[in-house]
Every structure is written in C-alpha cells, then in structure tokens.
Input
Amino acid sequence: MPGTLEGIRIIDLSTVVLGPWASQMLGDLGADVIKVETPSGDTTRKIGPYKTEGMASFFMGCNRNKRSVVLDLTKEDGREAFYDLVKTVDVIIHNMRPRIAKKLGLEYETISKVNPDIVFCATYGFRSGGPLENNPAYDDIIQAAAGITDLQTVTSDQPRFVPTIVADKTSSFNVLYAVLAALFHRERHGTGQAIEVPMFECLVDYVMVEHLNGAVFEPAIDTLGYKRLLNSQRRPYATTDGYLAVLPYTDKNWQDFFDVAGRPELKTDPRFESLASRTKHSDEVYGILGEIVATRSTAEWLDVLSDANIPVQTSNKIDDLLENEQLLATGFWRTFEHPSEGTIRMAEPPIKFSKTPSTIRLLQPRLGEHSREVLKEAGFTDARIDGLIKSGAAKEAELEEA
Output
C-alpha cells in the first residue's frame, strides 16, 4: 500500500540531525526525499564507527528512505542545476542561518520565484528578527540556552547536558508537523509558504510547558518550576538488586501501593492525601517511596505492582534495549542487507497506520549515489550532467558491494 505522503517530493539540504531526522520521517511516510549534499557530504557520514568511509553509524540513523545527490551550490552551474531541480519538488528543508542562505541565493524570496508553490522550511538556532538570529547553534548550545542544562542541577552539583541530542530531535518533530501542516494548507488553498523552525524557541516552549508554573499568571502567583520534577528524590529507585521507575500517580495508585507495600499507616498520612498535597510535599513523598522500594527485589516489585496496575518499569541500560521483550515482540528492530554495508540494524518507524503504512523502501545512500538518476528525472541531459561532474559542481558515486 502507498504511504501517506506518496507523490510528495522533498529536497533535504540539511545536515547533522535536526533536518535529516525530520526528512527521514517524511520519507518513512512515503515522500520521495532527495538529499542534496556538498561534495564533502553530510558531516555525520564521518561520525561513529563505519565499515565504508562516508557511511558511519550516525549518518545511518538519520538517512534512510533518501536518495543522495551532490551539488556544489557555491558554483554558479551547481546553483543553476539546483534551481532546475527545485522546479520539480514540493518541499525544501534547510538548516542554514539566514545570512548564509541569502548569500547562496537559497532564501525563500529567491526560491519562491523559481517554484511559487514550494513549501520552504528553514530550521536553525534562533528565530529571525532577534539579536541571535545569525548565531551558530548545535544541540549543546540550545540545551544550555533553553535552561535544560540548569535543570540538571536538581541531581548534580553543576549544569549538565542531557546525554541525548534532545534539542535537535525535539526540533525535528516541529519541522515534521510544520511541513505536514503547510502541505495540508497547500492542498486546501493551493499556495506554498515559508516556514521557520528555530531550535531555541522550540526548546523554550518545550521546557516551559510545566516549568512556567506560577508565571503563567501576571503578576506571577508562584515561582517558576514544576515542584514535582525539581526534586532530587525523583529518580529510578534502588531495589535490592537493580533499579525501578515507580510512579503511583492517582489517589487510588497510592492507596493500592501502600497496601501491597505493607504500609497501611501511610494511607491516612495527609502528605499523600491528594495530588496537590503530594506535589507540595514532593521531597518527602519521593523520599519515602525510595525507602520502601529499597526493601524488595526488582522482580518482586514488578510482580506486585503490575498486578495492582501501578505504573512501573525497569530502568533499562541502552544495551538492554536490543533484547527488550516488548521491542522484540512488536518487531521494532529490523535487519536489512545493505548493498555496501552488509547486514545492518535499524528501528522500524514506530507509528502505525491502518491504511497507509510507513515503510523502509530505500537504505542509506552513498554520497552522490543518485546524482545522475535524480537529475535525469528532472530533465537533465547526460551531456549536462557530465558537464556538471567535470566542473566539480556535481558528483556521483559507484556503489560498492559489501
């Protein structure tokens, strides 16, 4: 069955994670994604272990369901070729800062003259119009700017980064929904538009959903920060032989927890009476919870808490996830035979559609693997393609068998 976005053609000019992971998800949904790269390729082609140079693990995680075309947009003939390719697509995603995009002739005003119907998504560090609009930004920079690093001081003696690229990947979801919404608008009204997805503003919005707290009201009626989360006692709790995430949440959860824990006296403790009182006394509440969990083994708690319908899960190491029974039972991990990399593992698209399933149709491309194919589809003659390759404005790669 065709994917939800079958017939939509996308140019992905972005690099690293923010844009590439978003365009990969669009590819999973059925879009034809053309990854336009510089002659040196996306920097993630060199990050992590690899079998073939330019096909490192980091790149493999963000670039399935794409075709790779190399065009040097600093060369006039490369840029002209790009403009001709733009005429054949529905969406462009790039993560160049505004000043650089304008210098290369890749800003919306120029591109929309080439293709007035284009959905043009620019994603970068900071919203335009502010003093930081042309500042460089990577995940660490945005984690710090958006207050995420400071939130770690709850359990650490200093600000720390979350050990996953949360700013990039959170912003990727914003790119995804923005592009889908703009395509929906174009379907209804027949017009393309420019989209801006700034990482900093996306992450501040993300963080402040709960942490705006008393400052929701003007003037503020309480401090910023959601008290339940800003609590050093909130953590996976040690059992006698491991760690568990245990979260009695509703009033009934807590009453049932005290029953199975053999602590009935706490059922009438006013600190545990309601969500409001538990939040007010969250340090004490979570401290007591931790003390109770420490009295039994992981298996014992999983058994009694699951029977009582109290939310609980083991605190998995990332190594555990490859053998996780839930992921194995649902076929989440997939293996494929890659033409140049041999057997590879990747996650299946997690969202399921009953009529338009997401699919993995194309494995990660070698740099320039599809240059000639895509340019010919756009109406380029072999002679023009040869000329672009000879001038260095384009590049193609021969696929090596694993």
